[in-house]
User: Fold this.
Amino acid sequence: MRACEQTEGVLVRSKEMSLPYNKKLIPIAKELRKSMTKQELFLWSYFLKDYPIRFQRQKVIDNFIVDFYCHKAFLVIEIDGSQHYSENGLAYDDHRTDILSKYNLKVIRFTNTEVDKSFKEVCACIDFNVRNRLLIGSR
Assistant:
């Protein structure tokens, strides 16, 4: 799980500042909330929904819909199925990450298999990243 590597960074965006979003994507995001993948639903139901810091599902940011978003930690979580591992899928994900990074967001990715087979480690990694991002933001 590469997402758990410790990183340093400087957060310059105010926690009160809202992110730009494409209003036309809101109906699609609402539909995606109703039809989450098995792994997204599991992660939401058994960890993120009751996490002490608020996460949002299928959040519109810029021209994208991210799987999960924590505003306080400037953190995006993506759960990737097999389509993400094609040449085009990898390039698109890199492009998305580059754009989201410009808003000082950190994007962490997990595979469906990691959620299925290493759920405790995925949750620990998310918790580590939230805590680390909150510490960076408080400096």
Observations:
- Strands lie at 56-61, 64-70, 75-80, 106-111.
